[in-house]
Design goal:
318 residues, Rossmann fold, 7-stranded mixed sheet, 5-stranded mixed sheet, 39% helix, globular
Length: 318
């Protein structure tokens, strides 16, 4: 076990994959300088500019080139810097990468990993702070992964790189410096959730930056006599339907928490699935349907907090 940051864990996973397979390449803006968050630090120095490729500022060009590389037999890692910028490459990802395998009878595969960091980025305002994971979970053909810890960012990136399908890999913009233990021998299957905290009175489902907030909220609720189970989905498509249903069946209550806008968020899919299967009390907690503000008071309106989670959880527990 080694202690490293969320960014270092991803850099290590990618370096190991590149050493093991010469077909793994990375492309995007500023990779030679280590990337915006240091997630590529040292890689161009080790593998050279032919495999860690600095590109022009054109997201459509970057994603389109990666789709072509994947169809030609490479395994590209596509860096979009933040998910907000990936909207400039939506056609190449949603209409080309996601659909190729299906439209051509499996003759072509697009094994690319598109890194699209999500979430509020402090004082970065409406065009740099979006959580758009539900958009991509809605698209057939895409795998959607949302790591919350350094261990997950190591093991899930390894799993994404081994996948034969396009993976939308959604790290959080404010998790890069988070430290944690990483076991390089630990494999994680995409689609398997993790129980971050065991409990028996309420099932609390979340992902990404919401995980630590929900664990902290569960601690507050424990002091008030409530036992809350926190489940980190880790991936949204596929998602661990069986694991969530088993927990919700046992606790009899479900709350889904996410930083994304609540309206039409992925929490609605989880809540509907559990309500249809179990007919138990369910709730959602997400951001209001407003652009993220630049000023700290306005930004706070869109942010999750322990206090907000505790308030909604208590309404279910009563």
């Amino acid at each position: 076990m080694a202690v490293m940051s969320y960014a270092q864990a991803a850099a290590l996973a990618l370096a190991e994959a590149m050493r093991a397979d010469a077909n793994v390449v990375a492309l995007g803006e500023d990779l030679g300088r280590g990337g915006v968050f240091g997630q590529y630090r040292g890689l161009q120095q080790e593998f050279g500019p032919e495999r860690v490729i600095d590109t022009p500022i054109s997201e459509a060009n970057i994603m389109g080139a990666a789709v072509g590389m994947a169809l030609a037999g490479l395994r590209p890692v596509v860096e979009m810097r933040v998910v907000d910028f990936a909207l400039c490459a939506i056609d190449e990802l949603v209409n080309q990468a996601a659909k190729n395998r299906f439209m051509f009878g499996g003759q072509g595969r697009v094994p690319l990993v598109a890194r699209l960091p999500i979430g509020i980025w402090s004082a970065s305002a409406a065009q740099h702070s979006q959580s758009l994971e539900a958009w991509f979970a809605h698209v057939p053909g895409l795998v959607v992964v949302t790591p919350a810890t350094p261990q997950d960012n190591y093991s899930l990136l390894k799993a994404a790189l081994a996948s034969g399908d396009p993976v939308v890999y959604m790290e959080h913009k404010e998790l890069w410096g988070v430290q944690g233990e990483v076991d390089c021998e630990a494999a994680i299957e995409i689609g398997s959730a993790r129980v971050s905290r065991a409990g028996g009175d309420l099932t609390l489902v979340t992902w990404s930056r919401g995980v630590q907030l929900c664990v902290d909220a569960a601690d507050v609720l424990a002091a008030q006599g409530a036992s809350v189970e926190v489940i980190d989905l880790r991936s949204l498509w596929p998602w661990d339907r069986d694991g969530v249903l088993a927990s919700a069946r046992r606790t009899g209550r479900l709350l889904v928490v996410h930083e994304a806008v609540q309206a039409a968020g992925f929490g609605a899919e989880v809540v509907a699935t559990v309500a249809e299967a179990l007919a138990i009390p369910v709730r959602r907690l997400g951001a209001p349907r407003i652009p993220v503000g630049y000023s700290m008071p306005l930004e706070a309106v869109s942010r999750l907090s322990v206090e907000k989670i505790v308030e909604v959880a208590l309404s279910l527990l009563r």
